[in-house]
Amino acid sequence: MDSRTSEVVAVNQQETEAEITPLPSLERAREFARQSKAENTLRGYRGDWKHFCGWCEARNLCPLPASPETVAAYIAECAGHLKVGSIQRRLNAIAEAHKAMALESPTSTGMVRNTIKGIRRTMGTAAAQKTAALTDDIRTMVSVTDSELIGARDRAMILLGFAGAFRRSELVGLSIEDCEFGKDGLTITLRRSKTDQDGMGRKIGIPYGSNPETCPVRTVQGWMEQAAIVTGPLFRSITRHGRLLPGRLSGIDVARVVKKLAKRAGLDATKYGGHSLRAGHATSAAIAGATERSIMNQTGHRSVQMVRKYIRDGSLFRENSAGKLGL
Questions:
Q1: How much is the pLDDT for 26?
Q2: pLDDT per residue over 254-296, tens digit each?
Q3: What is the three-state SS of 264-309?
Q4: 100-130 pLDDT, tens digit each
Q5: What is the pLDDT of residues 28-68, one digit of tens each?
Q6: Which residue of 40, 94, 267, 301 shows the fewest CB atoms closer than 10 Å?
Q7: Does residue 194 sit in helix, strand or coil?
């Protein structure tokens, strides 16, 4: 090979390498794409996609790309043991997997859309709702907490979750740095939520309560002082020996605490969960005559229709036209 030929080969090789070398920002773009959805959502998608692939493998079907017939048969079988919301999430996972590979999703075809529509009409779409923990329930639950450190944490978590109408993820996502105490009460900076994935953040006011035993502001202060925490996660794990751990609680932990205290309070623990605090705030406020707008300001809902779904029968008998019939 002469020198001229060697130079041409070298140039061609450099050009080829330049073509196949990924752009420095491409991996960052992929990472941003992964961050476009909440981690809980991605975790759910991974589990749903794994289940779909296993279902296809057992039947010698191709999951990617999947045919509309395959997906329709899959969700029809899921309808025998899953709720409509869970089936829709599995469809979302299938769609995301195809989108990631630049493939047309079978979930948008008429066959699949008609199948899920039929499932909705047959099964209904009303979600099973946890019972709202009303003000009297919260008072009773607080009264049966432990006297040790774990009791201080549970009281603070229950009262703050109820007063702030927080979602489970929002409550456990709070840090000491998000809390600012003032003469009017506690200001919480909610940095991210289910409806604020971009992290714009919003401030929520927690006023002082009239009863020191159930005042959310004083209770949170007491928890922080007793736990001697000045930075990091607000609500943390505690061992059975009473040792405070640095790790942040999970949303499941909130549900466990609510169920534990509901059972101690003589309530049906199976009907209560972490969402009972948020629903309880909306319902109790509605019963007390709070306007829907003021409830929305606290819950962060953007539409009246959505906040009404969280008010568990709180206004069924308030301003009810049937009461004006003279029966």
A1: 46
A2: 999 999 999 999 999 999 999 999 999 998 998 888 888 888 8
A3: HCCCCHHHCCCHHHHHHHHHHHHHCCCCHHHHHHHHCCCCHHHHHH
A4: 888 999 999 999 999 999 988 887 655 567 8
A5: 544 545 555 566 677 888 889 999 999 999 999 999 999 99
A6: 40
A7: coil
Positions marked active-site:
167, 194, 275, 278, 301, 310
Distance CA 62, CA 41 (A): 24
Model pTM? 0.66
- DSSP conformation class of 228: T
Query: Beta strands 244-248 and 179-182: pairing type?
Result: unpaired
20 three-state secondary structure:
helix
Enter the tokens of residue 183. Answer: 């003469």
Beta-bridge mates of residue 190: 202
* pLDDT above 90 (res 326): no
DSSP-derived secondary structure for 112-143: HHHHHHHHHHHH--PPPPPPP--HHHHHHHHH
Measured in whole angstroms, how far is the alpha carbon of residue 109 from the centre of its chain? 29
CA 58 to chain centre: 32
**Whole-Å CA distances, 295 to 189, 199, 279, 282, 304:** 18, 22, 11, 6, 10
Going by C-alpha positions, the residue among 71, 227, 45 that lies closest to residue 149 is 227
Q: How far is CA 235 from the centre of its chain?
A: 17
Pairing, β 244-248 against β 185-190: unpaired
CA-to-CA dists, residue 296 to 34, 173, 176, 302, angstroms: 31, 21, 25, 7
Q: Residue 92: count other Cβ atoms within 10 Å of its Cβ.
A: 18
Bridge partners of 202, per DSSP, are 190
| Separation CA 12–CA 20 (nearest Å) | 13
β-partners of residue 203 are 189
For the cut 60, the answer to whether the pLDDT of residue 92 exceeds it is: yes
